[in-house]
Amino acid sequence: MSTLTIRLPDDTAARLKALARSRGQSMNKLIEELGAQALAAWDTENHFRAVAATGDVRAALAVLDRLDAADRN
Question: What average pLDDT does the structure give for the chain?
């Protein structure tokens, strides 16, 4: 496990402490969870970009057209 020192504006640090307190968590646990959420979002974005880069644009547009048609019905 690593130790990380970060610098935050006083107001941000105070708000994060209040958030952790309201959840009954330590600051460490809160930052760990927020970091995991940020990494999951980043991983998802990278996955979709990789899939899009290898995808068939015409097939994707055809799927969107079918979805639009279904929404109109």
Answer: 92
